Amino acid sequence: METDFDVQRFEALLDRHGAEPHDWPAPLREHALTLLASSDDAKRLYDEARLLDDTLDTILVDAPRPLGLKTRILANTPQRDPWLDWFTVRVWRPVVLGCLPLAVGFAVGANFADDPADLEDQVLIAFADADTLEALALVEDE
Amino acid sequence: MARVKAQDGDAFAVLVERHLATIHAFNYRLTRDAEDAADLAQETFLRVWSKAATYKPNRVKFTTWLHRIAHNLCIDQHRRRRPVDDVDVDTLDSGEADIEKLPANERLRQAVDRALADLPERQRTALLLCHRRNMSNREAAEVLDISVDALESLLSRARRTLRTTLRAYR
Q1: Any residues with CB less than 8 A from the CB of A11 and at least 6 apart, and which?
Q2: Are the beta carbons of B20 and A73 separated by less than 8 Å?
Q3: Which of B42, B133, B166 sits opposite A55 (nearest CB)?
Q4: Is the minimum CB–CB distance between B150 and chain A shorter than 8 Å?
Q5: d(CA B49, CA B53)
Q6: What 3 state SS string does A11-69 have?
Q7: Is the ipTM of this complex over 0.90?
Q8: Does A82 contact chain B (CB < 8 Å)?
Q9: Considering the entire predicted model, what is its pTM?
């Protein structure tokens, strides 16, 4: 039970939560209402806070929404082109995927074919016997 | 929002319809200019469309994310325009003089309006977000990317300043 709920705390409550008792935190509401019923200072502060809220109501009126604003927003939204989506999914993507192995094969083939000396080395390594490979490995370790 | 993430135009149209009024009103409260508010609302929703993939529903409510985008755009615009918006002291003086001739309630309204416009930006935004429980303090804190304590401190300072103005004109 809060026994030290004085006018200062009441004022702080009004400043933080406004003049509407429903908006006050539940644990403080009862103390605030009790004080409000018994204190002239609390009543004066409450009336002031209510007048402020009412005055703000007259100031914070909403401007009429310009006609066609929604249309303007939607018209300016970059839309995806359904035809482009269809083309990407049904044509472009399968073509790219289909060509990928072809491109890889072409690149590998071209690499081997470019330099006959490289091809010769590859063949030598591929058909070298175990002793030769071991000797090569020892040279690398050193 | 899941459909908007998948760039579904129809779902985006529904989302715009559902939230446009709120965002336009929020922008208008921040900018005090209907045309700017509309332009910023458009930019906000275009940002939602283009950044939809980055939205994490398990981290933040959609409305909080939306208001955060709108708020950041308003701040950017304010920063870009600040040098142009320097107040002419002569105009300000004549405005004060005119206020004295108005009926008491209108004088009060204009004084609070001016005090609200003069509040530091974050205090003003905190108040606009939370006035009449438009948003809970926790949600507003998320929009401003600060703690609830920090948000309530902003609210406190804003309301105290406005109440001081109010006392002077009562």
Answers
A1: A45
A2: yes
A3: B166
A4: no
A5: 9
A6: HHHHHHHCCCHHHCCHHHHHHHHHHHHHCHHHHHHHHHHHHHHHHHHHHCCCCCCCCCH
A7: no
A8: no
A9: 0.68
